[in-house]
Specification:
Number of strands: 13
Strand content: 15-25%
Radius of gyration: 30 Å
Low-confidence stretches: none
Number of helices: 15
Structural class: alpha+beta
Shape: elongated
Oligomer: single chain
Helix content: 25-40%
């Protein structure tokens, strides 16, 4: 995109909450269940059926709001959001708008260039719509399908929505925000937040402007279920809008679908505003008034956010390594090892490479004992070190047996062994001095054999080079 245009992005992120039952009825939630097997008069909107709110979903929403530094008002109101669609049996969705459970907040977004603050407009709770399945045709999409079927199992699932300010300025920044937001949601234990299963999805609002301008009309791209596709859709929308503005064409605020196969955006419908939904308070539900005691109890369950942890670790290990540690859930082990005396940079490499490759679960490692091994790993024989890594999560793991096998590195002890090996291999000595340094590996191997693998290879290598000088 031309440098004199700026991309403006806001997100509406939806996550299914991890509850046993639906938002306003007692139907159980089961991913992959046979179609229309978890329904009742409430979620099918039979006349006279009344909703009862899911208290666990309310608590989970407040917890997420606290993690996003949102204001938690003393009173929240459920509202009817009116629109007509085949997967919405009531003709309206029970949602929140003017009085949500969580008000304004912020998300501190670290990056290699510094920290950005992304505004949170609100975090609110609603029920999900049912699932429309397009059948027949070649695409499996609404366009070209011969029929559309509705599975009402999903209808009524507790759905939390996070609405951001239009503070994101690139496709990469939006994808990074989404990854860290997902990590936050997962660590709170309130949702699996798996895009491939549809338990996390995002609507993306994209516009462009000249730097310093007010906002121009935006396009909303609906139901994105891949970080990569979110990035590609933002770039495609920005390209098309810039081209339209430069050609003097009008950019109309609309809702779009993104086809990842063709990298094309197609108009779905004109973009609705809040007035179009005719919000009004849900008459069948009383306001929610969370007690201060509940809010403080939930606040105590919120740990340091992934974004803050990246920023805290970055000075010690660099941004890229900090991101890897946090987004893989390995930073807890890293912190514990460093607290036990292990050096930060080397510890990060061990956690992300050798611990990860061994298949050991980071949370099961005895950090206090393993740190004792880690700080002397350069003096341990390779096979001893690898065994320590592989057994670091075993119950009752202790460092002592591994430390007793510390590599022999005392020059006064190694020097006689090196001299004996050189004396026993005169032909290899002459070959080395003739310019073929590859024979050095053979001589190192002989010393390691004589010391039963206990010699420090680095010290052996250095001693051999010194002795082999003409």
């Amino acid at each position: 995109m031309a440098a004199d245009w700026e991309t403006v992005v806001g997100l509406e992120v939806h996550a299914h909450l991890k509850t046993r039952t639906k938002m306003f009825c007692r139907c159980e939630l089961e991913y992959g269940a046979a179609e229309n097997t978890h329904t009742c008069p409430v979620c099918l909107a039979h006349p006279g059926a009344l909703p009862v709110p899911n208290g666990r979903a309310i608590g989970q929403t407040i917890m997420l709001g606290l993690a996003l530094e949102c204001e938690i008002p003393g009173r929240a109101v459920f509202a009817r959001k009116n629109y007509f669609y085949p997967d919405l049996p009531k003709g309206y969705q029970i949602s929140q708008y003017e009085a949500p459970l969580c008000g304004r907040g912020r998300f501190v977004l670290p990056s290699a260039e510094g920290v950005r603050e992304i505004g949170i407009v609100r975090v609110h709770l609603e029920e999900d719509a049912a699932k429309t399945v397009h059948a027949g045709g070649a695409t499996g999409r609404s366009v070209g399908a011969s029929m559309s079927l509705v599975d009402f199992n999903r209808g009524g699932t507790p759905l939390v929505e996070i609405v951001t300010e239009p503070d994101l300025r690139s496709a990469d920044e939006a994808m990074w925000f989404l990854r860290l937001l997902r990590q936050t949601i997962v660590e709170l234990g309130i949702s699996d937040a798996e895009m491939e299963k549809g338990t996390l999805r995002a609507d993306v609002n994209v516009s462009v402007r000249r730097p310093g301008e007010r906002y121009r009309p935006r396009w909303e791209i609906k139901n994105m279920n891949s970080f990569t596709f979110v990035g590609r859709a933002i770039e495609a929308a920005a390209r098309q809008q810039v081209a339209a503005h430069q050609a003097g064409e009008e950019v109309v605020q609309s809702t779009y679908d993104y086809d990842a196969d063709t990298d094309r955006l197609t108009v779905h419908r004109s973009k609705e505003e809040a007035d179009d939904y005719r919000y009004f308070p849900e008459p069948d539900l009383v306001p929610v008034e969370p007690s201060p005691e509940l809010v403080e109890r939930l606040r105590g369950e919120v740990r340091e956010s992934p974004a803050h942890r990246v920023g805290r670790i970055e000075p010690a290990v660099g941004f890229e390594r900090a991101v890897e540690l946090v987004t893989t859930g390995s930073d807890g082990l890293f912190d514990s090892l460093v607290a036990a005396g292990a050096p930060a940079a080397g510890t990060a490499n061990v956690v992300m490479n050798e611990i990860a490759a061994s298949g050991v679960q980071p949370g099961a490692v005895d950090a206090t004992e393993f740190a004792k091994v880690l700080v002397v790993r350069e003096r341990l024989p390779r096979d001893v070190w690898l065994e320590a890594v592989a057994r670091s999560a075993d119950p009752g793991f202790r460092a002592a047996p591994f430390l007793e096998q510390e590599a022999l590195s005392d020059v006064s002890e190694l020097e006689p062994v090196v001299e004996a090996v050189l004396a026993a291999n005169p032909q290899q000595v002459e070959t080395y001095r003739g310019g073929k340094e590859g024979v050095l590996g053979f001589l190192v191997g002989q010393v390691m054999r004589e010391t039963q693998g206990k010699a420090d290879p680095k010290v052996v290598n250095r001693l051999l080079r010194e002795k082999l000088r003409p």
